[in-house]
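Aim 2, interim progress: modelling of the pyridoxal-5'-phosphate-bound target.
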Amino acid sequence: MEKMTVYADNAATTKPSAAAAETMMRYLTEDYGNPAAVCSMGRKAGRAVLAAREQTAKALGSRVDEVYFTSGGTESDNWAVKGAAELGAAQGKRHIITTAIEHHAVLRTCGYLEKHGFEVTYLMPDEYGRIAASQVEGAMRSDTCLVSVMAANNEVGTLEPVKEIAEVCRERKVLFHTDAVQAAGHIPIDFRELGADMLSVSGHKFHAPKGAGALLIRSGLILPNLMHGGSQQRGRRAGTENVPAIAALGEALTEAVSDMSEVNERLFRLTEELAERLLRTEGAHRNGHSRERLPGTLNISFDGVEGESLLLLLDMAGICASSGSACTSGSTDPSHVLLAMGVPSVRAKGSLRLSFSRYSTPEEFEYIAQAVPQVVERLKGMR
Ligand code: PLP
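Predicted structure of the complex, ligand included:
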């Protein structure tokens, strides 16, 4: 087998599309005005931000004035959770419901709020990483001010029943936020139909550059500001907009939804075939749901294999993958997501996340299908 370079870490970040990179260069090198400035260069930049807002609204089924650009998923999550908590506290409501499998951008924000007088309920998923709407309903209290449940998990790809959860929240008049950082640009999202109050998005997960994201805020909901300063974005998110990245986000999201069903059909089939082959390896276990999942994300544990060593040898074989979320790589702690799903600690330490994109080729899948079992056997032989 001839050595290839294969990028299979798209849940961590994606390659900017050609259109996104081109758009970015235009606003870096030519139309670099400040979008708040009145001169023609400024107006051009301002129009670029507006166009991106329109593209984002169209792609995600929201109103244009419901889109607020941020620096990425982490800021969007912080804004949604802290903002809703502040609104709750003003009414004497200091209880938040979230899940044990959220990204740290939500979990650590909740941890911060716990230190400031809030109580947080962390719902546990089933063995496939699913949370049920009935669990949310069961955890509701008269002082619940926010429910935050992700649309798709970043480590195992499992999809959560966010539409049903939104319904439960609406009935109880409790704000609902969903972290759709892994879902936006990957599965169909219609903000209005979903019925969420807030939805987080991050550009670098769908072929836009890093450093730009969005928070969709339902019109009528006046969320307290996270960033204070200038009057950008109608006074609700201060700070000069990252015009090149925002314009590229609009382009990339438009591209992502234009042929989503074709791309997804192909990716789902290729990842399922790959899963079947990898699961033939002795001691291999699938983590996550096999149907209710992101089309391009696969998580498999190999008994008797340490995740970090697996990644190292795969890297030497030209395969860039991950053992969990990128933000925790470098630490050898087992993934909080897998532990919450009931995966034993030793097995969680031997997990491999392979995540693909619209640019992944059948040849790359074939290369991984051959290389991973060889590397796993080699590691087992080294014990
Ligand atoms: N939420 C989820 C589910 C994620 O996967 C990530 C990034 O991995 C984030 C939030 C944070 O997004 P960003 O890297 O844009 O800050």
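The two ends are 25 Å apart (CA to CA). The chain has 14 helices and twelve strands.
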